[in-house]
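We give the entry.
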Amino acid sequence: MTKPTRDVQITFDCADPATLAAFWADALGYRLQDPPGGFESWEQALEAMGVPPERRNDASAVVDPGGAGPRLFFQRVAENKQVKNRVHLDVRAAPGLVGEARMAALEAAADRLVSRGAARLGRHEPAPPLSAGHIVLADPEGNEFCLD
C-alpha cells in the first residue's frame, strides 16, 4: 500500500503578515493567495466575514503560481523573534552554477532582496567538495534564510 502524499505549509510567526507575505512572494516568485470564491479582494471578504479593520492583518498567505511549492502562511503573534532559527529556507538562486559565476548570481539576488527589506548577515565562500558557497540573509523581521 502506498502512503498518501502530504501537503506541507510553512508558517511564519511575525508582527506584520502583509509585509512579510509580500517580501516572500517577491523572493520566491510566489503570489498572494486569492480571496475566497465570490470576492474580488481580501478586503471585501474580510468585511463580509465581519473581521474588524484592526484585525485584517492578522494573517496572510502566498502560494506558488505553478502549484508545486508549499504554501507559506504568515500569522501575527505578540512576541518578537528571540533567537536564531533552527529551521530556515534555502532559496535556490543559482542552480547549476559553480565558482565565481555562482557567487555573482547569489550576490545579484542578495542585492535585490536587500533593496526589498532583507538584511545581509554573511557570505560563505565555496569550499569544495562539500560547500558550493552561499549567502545568509534575514527577511524584514529577522528570519534567517540562505541564498544557495
In short: DSSP finds three helices and eight strands in the chain. Residues 89-147 form one domain. The helical segments are 17-28, 42-48, 99-115. The first helix runs from residue 17 to 28.
